[in-house]
């Protein structure tokens, strides 16, 4: 038999399995972690398949070196299947798939030392070297090359002749992993709380989920309910039901910042059997939690995106809270969509998935419409607490009246009131990236692409500026007047959080502000610290980007201000209306969660836009109908899916040439298919990043199954063709287009 081994190499993406002979003394199984020779190195990998020798290539194979199962757990069959799924669906490498399903520390770092071999002689090696190797029990390759000036070819020859031998000692980055694995579970005592008596709507939803759990067929529910409608209580009780049936469960939240709150709530219900997983944990913490799950000491997992790969067995229920959030898309290889992985795992385990949201993504609702998902609703807030009163402020009016402050009169007064009463406010700015758009201050329209209905972005090329649609590549000179009203007051648009903070200090002397954005929350624990300060009333205003939009719950917040709704409304993305609607509904849900009534003030240049109007009324259905009509007319998702290729190279010409070649290959493969649209090679939304030029090619299609082979073939072909320095990445089911 031979073993087919997946190897994870950081430096270069390895995209095949490697064949090794299995020495007779080794008892290996599929999934085992093994050490193998790789070039002149020794690396670890996992056996993904066993084959009889005849099937293997005729060339000479090297044997596996040793089994690592005493140190590193073997892969469950599900994990291997899942790697195949990731590879198949997202066209990633084996290495990337392996990295994704393992916590970082199970990857053993090997440090090979050269030691004296059986045929070592002083004549061959020299007196000094022999003495050194004896004294220090070997030497690293670096030492031999640098200090003893031995070239690498010589080393290989000596290895072959057994003059030198490689001794592989294992140093995990954690040191003694066994001690850690035994960890500190059971140390903490939890005061458990009892489940709440469910409302009628909750009861109905809960029963449906329980019924599906009993039936043990995989099924997906959409739990649609505004913030405060009691979704989390339904999750908790459904999870409890699954646990009682001897199953395990998983609860995913969109932001790491939210895991802490959710974790606390889960521990009050389930105690020490809850594990938490997210990327901000230290390696040690991550490993501890991962191992607790693997050993079945924890059977409930709370976590962010990557927790979907938690090594739970017998999964009964997977909950994805705020399922519409973009953070559920992984933006590095493999570029997976959490919902898809969840559905895959649910199918494997005959488990139930709940997608919860106040504003389900259009993709999800479309599946409800088509009968693939089952809709459950919680139409009211618990205790019939009113939703925040939403006031839309027309910034065009403010401008006309000569108020040029970042804060309208209404928002200014409301802030003064909050300060006077000692209450708190959240100010929200949805600025992401550095895209600059043109916005007419008189009619509120943004400059959009004539073909795509997507905002044009401003680019500086040489000394002059031009407008570009980064979807189709359409370009035009900078507009002087507004295309819809003829006004000349057409300006670049966008303020940063820093600028708003400054304006707050100027207009409200003595105001205490906490600014939360990517600049201020980089450090570990920064989120929690800032939110804690706000909670303790150490600030009047919490000012931030989308990271403050959801899930957070503060009793003293009576005002939520959206400084410029237009920023998200006109992002150069066909999803901008959807994002804006989702955001406004979420942010509105932050106010008035407790005794004090809440209000929201939304400043915008487009008060009549359907996303803004629907958000004011919190009318999901109205928004859904309008937006779906737009998507259908333009053939955007969810009516299609988009695969995006990105080609990067230091030379713009090379990047473009490869992109063009890729475009041609796609044309050849998919010629004449009318359900497929291939967009020309155009500069990516960020055309140049760290000195590297980036081009993109996009394909829109109605069924991935029908284009998969063609897309895979073209991608592989281009990878093989591309010379060094060219980076080609693929994003199947691309979510963000800027
Ligand atoms: P969501 O997840 O939809 O935002 P939650 O489950 O967090 O809603 O519920 C909102 C608030 O209402 C929480 O404080 C929760 O404790 C409370 N709550 C939820 N369900 C009930 C219930 N059946 N009876 C009383 N209070 C409830
Ligand atoms: Zn105009
Ligand atoms: Zn366009």
Question: Could you please describe the fold and organization of this structure?
Answer:
Residues 453-631 form the Helicase C-terminal domain. This is Replication restart protein PriA. With 738 residues, the chain is an alpha/beta fold. The protein folds into six domains: 2-101, 3-Layer(aba) Sandwich (GIY-YIG endonuclease), CATH 3.40.1440; 106-189, no CATH class; 200-382, Rossmann fold, CATH 3.40.50; 389-431 and 497-630, Rossmann fold; 435-494, no CATH class; 641-732, Ribosomal protein S10 (Alpha-Beta Plaits). It has 23 helices and 29 strands. Strands 10-11-9-12-13-8-14 form a seven-stranded parallel sheet, sandwiched between helices. Helix 17 (526-535) links the parallel strand 22 and strand 23 (541-544). Helix 1 (77-90) runs antiparallel to helix 12 and helix 20 (610-617) runs antiparallel to helix 21 (620-634). It is globular and about 95 Å long. The chain starts with a strand and ends in a 7-residue tail after the last strand. The model is unreliable at 170-187 (pLDDT under 50). One zinc ion (ZN) binds next to loops.
């Amino acid at each position: 038999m031979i073993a087919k081994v997946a190897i994870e190499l950081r430096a270069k993406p390895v995209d095949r399995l490697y064949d090794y002979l299995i020495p007779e003394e080794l008892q290996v199984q599929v999934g085992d972690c093994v050490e193998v020779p790789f070039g002149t190195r020794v690396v670890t990998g996992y056996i993904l398949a066993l084959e009889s020798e005849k099937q293997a290539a005729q060339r000479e194979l090297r044997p596996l070196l040793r089994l690592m199962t005493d140190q590193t757990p073997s892969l469950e069959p599900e994990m291997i299947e899942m790697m195949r799924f990731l590879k198949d669906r997202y066209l990633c490498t084996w290495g990337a798939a392996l990295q994704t399903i393992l916590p970082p520390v199970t990857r053993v770092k090997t440090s090979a030392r050269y030691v004296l071999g059986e045929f070592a002689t002083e004549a061959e090696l020299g007196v000094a070297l022999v003495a050194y190797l004896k004294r220090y029990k070997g030497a690293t390759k670096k030492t031999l090359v640098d200090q003893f000036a031995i070239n690498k070819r010589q080393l290989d020859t000596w290895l072959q002749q057994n003059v030198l031998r490689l001794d592989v000692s294992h140093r995990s980055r954690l040191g003694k992993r066994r001690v850690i694995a035994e960890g500190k579970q059971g140390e903490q005592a939890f005061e458990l709380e009892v489940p709440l008596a469910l409302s009628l709507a909750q009861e109905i939803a809960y029963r449906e989920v329980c019924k599906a759990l009993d039936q043990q067929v995989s099924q997906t529910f959409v739990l649609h309910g505004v913030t405060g409608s009691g979704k989390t209580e339904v999750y908790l009780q459904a999870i409890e039901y699954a646990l009682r049936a001897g199953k395990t469960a998983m609860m995913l939240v969109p932001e790491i910042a939210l895991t802490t709150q959710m974790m606390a709530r889960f521990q009050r219900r389930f105690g020490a059997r809850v594990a938490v997983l997210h990327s901000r944990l230290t390696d040690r913490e991550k490993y501890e939690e991962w191992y607790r799950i693997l050993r079945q000491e924890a059977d409930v997992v709370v976590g962010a995106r990557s927790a979907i790969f938690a090594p739970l067995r017998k999964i009964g229920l997977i909950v994805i809270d705020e399922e519409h959030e973009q953070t559920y898309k992984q933006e590095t290889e493999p570029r997976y969509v959490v919902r898809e992985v969840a559905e895959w795992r649910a199918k494997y385990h005959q488990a139930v998935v709940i997608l919860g949201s106040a504003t389900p993504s259009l993709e999800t609702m479309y599946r409800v419409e088509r009968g693939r998902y089952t809709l459950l609703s919680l139409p009211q807030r618990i205790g019939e607490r009113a939703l925040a009163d939403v006031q839309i402020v027309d910034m065009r009016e403010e401008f006309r009246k000569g108020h040029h402050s970042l804060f309208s009169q209404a928002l200014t007064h409301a802030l003064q009131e909050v300060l006077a009463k000692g209450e708190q406010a959240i100010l929200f700015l949805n600025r992401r990236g550095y895209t600059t758009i043109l916005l007419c201050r008189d009619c509120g329209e943004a400059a959009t692409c004539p073909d795509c209905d997507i905002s044009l972005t401003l680019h500086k090329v040489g000394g002059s500026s031009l407008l570009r649609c980064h979807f189709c590549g359409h370009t035009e000179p900078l507009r002087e007047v507004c295309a819809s009203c003829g006004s000349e007051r057409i300006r670049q648009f966008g303020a940063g959080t820093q600028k708003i903070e400054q304006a707050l200090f100027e207009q409200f002397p003595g105001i205490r502000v906490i600014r939360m954005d990517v600049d201020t929350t980089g450090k570990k624990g920064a989120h929690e610290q800032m939110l804690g300060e706000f909670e303790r009333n150490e600030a009047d205003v919490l000012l931030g980007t989308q990271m403050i939009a959801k899930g957070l719950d503060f009793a003293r917040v009576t005002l939520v201000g959206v400084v410029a709704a237009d920023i998200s409304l006109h992002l150069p993305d066909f999803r901008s209306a959807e994002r804006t609607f989702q955001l406004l509904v979420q942010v509105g849900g932050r106010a008035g969660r407790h005794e004090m009534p809440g209000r929201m003030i939304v400043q915008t240049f487009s008060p009549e836009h359907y996303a803004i109007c629907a958000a004011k009324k919190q009318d999901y259905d109205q928004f859904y109908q309008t937006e779906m009509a737009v998507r259908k007319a333009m053939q955007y998702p969810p009516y299609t899916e988009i695969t995006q290729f990105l080609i990067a190279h230091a030379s713009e010409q090379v990047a473009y040439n490869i992109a063009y070649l890729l475009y041609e290959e796609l044309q050849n493969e998919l010629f004449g298919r009318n359900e497929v649209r291939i967009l020309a090679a155009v500069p990516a939304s960020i055309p140049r990043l760290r000195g590297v030029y980036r081009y993109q090619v996009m394909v829109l299609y109605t069924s991935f199954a029908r284009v998969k082979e063609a897309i895979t073939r073209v991608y592989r072909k281009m990878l093989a063709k591309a010379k060094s320095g060219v980076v080609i990445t693929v994003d199947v089911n691309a979510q963000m287009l800027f």
